[in-house]
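Recall the central idea of this unit: under ordinary conditions, the amino acid sequence of a chain determines the structure it adopts. In this exercise we apply that idea directly, starting from the sequence alone.
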Amino acid sequence: MPDFPVLIQKLTTHFIWIDVEAADQDEADRNAIEMADLGFFEFDEDVEVVDESDWEVNKQYRCLDCGVDTSGCGEYPLMIRDELWYQIVPGGEGMLCRADMERRLGRPLTQEDLIPLPNRRKR
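Accordingly, the structure predicted from this sequence is:
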């Protein structure tokens, strides 16, 4: 079975990225929550978790169409010009993988469609 990336969170302060072996993304999400609830993950020593809230899956980086995790699919960071983005996502909210951006546009992305990203400093 393939591994699926899952971002799980407890409240808004404790996040863990894990790869979960599963048949599909939904199963991976369920398995990740179950593993977290059973205490399979440990935080760094300096993080104290004192709340009793439940773990949940954070889906903010999932493609609106296919559900792939856009932060872990190897295509990003990738940004397109605002006018194109609002053409294919009228409300502007959400994420799309490259394949679904191109499907919604009806053509492949070109270099002119992309917004140059600033170089990140290496530490």
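The first helix runs from residue 25 to 37.
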